[in-house]
TrEMBL record:
InterPro entries: PMP3. The chain crosses the membrane at residues 26-47. GO terms for cellular component: membrane. It comes from Aequorivita lipolytica. Belongs to the UPF0057 (PMP3) family. Its main location: membrane. It is found in: Membrane. Keywords: Membrane, Transmembrane, Transmembrane helix. The keyword Transmembrane helix applies. This is YqaE/Pmp3 family membrane protein. The keyword Transmembrane applies. It comes from the Bacteria.
């Protein structure tokens, strides 16, 4: 996980996961609209996933 991605995930979560696919961006965007903290947590989890 890159430090710039982590900072981007904290500031604007959907933009941090843009390289992980459209589904990830959509999920993080919806969670960010519902509340900023769930969006940040989801973005950090997606970024920390070693599969992709």
């Amino acid at each position: 996980m890159n430090i710039w991605r982590v900072l981007l995930a904290i500031l604007f979560p959907p933009l941090a996961v843009i390289g992980k696919g459209c589904g990830s961006v959509l999920i993080v965007f919806i969670l960010t609209v519902c509340g900023w903290v769930p969006g940040v947590i989801a973005a950090l989890i997606i970024l920390n996933n070693p599969k992709k």
